[in-house]
Design brief:
The protein is α/β, with parallel strands linked by helices. The chain has a domain at 2-124: NAD(P)-binding Rossmann-like Domain (Rossmann fold, 3-Layer(aba) Sandwich), CATH 3.40.50.720. The protein contains 11 helices and 11 strands. The protein has helices at residues 10-21, 69-78, 100-115, 135-140, 158-170, 189-200, 214-218, 224-235, 247-252, 259-265, 267-271, and strands at 2-5, 26-30, 42-46, 59-63, 82-86, 118-124, 143-146, 152-153, 178-181, 187-188, 205-208. It has a 7-stranded parallel sheet, sandwiched between helices. The chain has a two-stranded parallel ribbon with strand order 7-11. It has a two-stranded antiparallel sheet with strand order 8-10. Helix 2 links the parallel strand 4 (59-63) and strand 5 (82-86). The longest helix has 16 residues, at 100-115. The structure holds NADP nicotinamide-adenine-dinucleotide phosphate. Residues 5-6, 8-12, 30-31, 36, 47, 63-66, 86, 88-89, 124, 126-127, 129-130 line the site of NADP nicotinamide-adenine-dinucleotide phosphate.
Length: 272
């Protein structure tokens, strides 16, 4: 039995589909089983730091949001041996910044290292899914307003992360590894909008908004201190080549999908 937290999320749901296709028994751990809407064949259990939630399982796929020492201790007592964590590429052993997202992922990795369980950390850089932040604008027009047109990343398809997670859970030899995951090529924000336009058969244009306007116009829902860190980290990527790894291909045998492929896969959603 393989336990999956975040099974209602993008990566977790793709992982569940893959495990079911591979005929592996899956139990989803969710905060709200009534709303999970998972495929037939998935056992759905409330996420709770209680041994009964983990009974009969040896492997656990974990989101940082679900990582807590009590839960890890209960999992270990119940017989879980190996945790695969969806962490993030900005975790660095020697980092000394105050980036709240890095600290959250660092803390989750530390709790797992301290738990006595075997672990594998998946450290993806930017998700291609982040482009959905522009979906509402794409639904209503051909101009997309956003910060830093030339910010560079190598966005990764969520199903490529799920494919690596599947291998980390089912194959031997991933214990103690931290896999840095990226898409296959660097693109700018403006390039991503052009690629989405091509997938939709439309001519889309990215219009750069000054960072000072971001809080009011683009991200009113983000806490100001978090937005400041995000703006600073995005600014640092302008014109800078992002880290690109071939880890997806090494582990899965299939090259990581391009942003163009991601845009085609999500064309229906982006079309609105
Ligand atoms: N976006 C990026 O560029 C990026 C880059 C690197 C790493 N990441 C990592 O990837 C994650 C996002 O992945 P995603 O897109 O698949 O996520 P998502 O679609 O937003 O889903 C989040 C999942 O986490 C679970 N969850 C949320 N809060 C929780 C809590 N307090 N306790 C327990 N479970 C909780 C939810 O499960 P239930 O509601 O069913 O309980 C949900 O299924 C980020 O949080 C980050 O850790 C993202």
């Amino acid at each position: 039995m393989i336990l999956v937290t975040g099974a209602t999320g993008n990566v977790g749901r793709a992982l569940v589909d893959r495990l079911l296709a591979a005929d592996r028994p899956v139990r989803a751990l969710t905060r709200d089983p009534q709303r999970a809407a998972l495929p037939d064949g998935v056992e759905v259990t409330r996420l709770h730091p209680d041994e009964s939630a983990f009974a009969g399982a040896t492997k656990l796929f974990l989101y940082v949001q679900a990582t807590d020492p009590d839960l890890l201790a209960a999992a270990r007592r119940a017989g879980v041996r190996h945790v695969v964590l969806l962490s993030a590429g900005y975790v660095k052993e020697d980092a000394d910044d105050n980036n709240p997202l890095r600290i959250m992922h660092d803390n989750a990795e530390r709790a797992i290292r301290d738990s006595g369980l075997e672990w594998t950390f998946l450290r993806p850089h930017a998700f291609a899914l982040n482009a959905l932040q522009w979906a509402d604008q794409i639904h209503t027009g051909d101009t997309v307003r956003g910060v830093f047109a030339d910010a560079m990343s190598a966005p990764i398809h969520e199903d490529d992360i799920a494919a690596v997670a599947q291998h980390a859970l089912l194959d031997v030899g991933h214990e103690g590894a931290a896999h840095i995951l990226t898409g296959p090529a660097a693109t700018s924000n403006a390039d991503q909008i052009t690629a989405i336009g091509r997938a939709l058969g439309r001519d889309l244009t990215y219009v750069e908004v000054p960072p000072e306007q971001a809080a009011t116009e683009l991200f009113p829902h983000l806490p100001p201190h978090l937005l400041q860190f995000l703006l600073k980290s995005w600014a640092a990527t302008v014109g800078t080549a992002p880290e690109i790894t071939d880890t997806v291909e090494k582990i899965t045998g299939t090259p990581a999908r391009t942003f163009e492929q991601w845009a085609q896969d999500h064309a229906e959603h982006l079309r609105g």
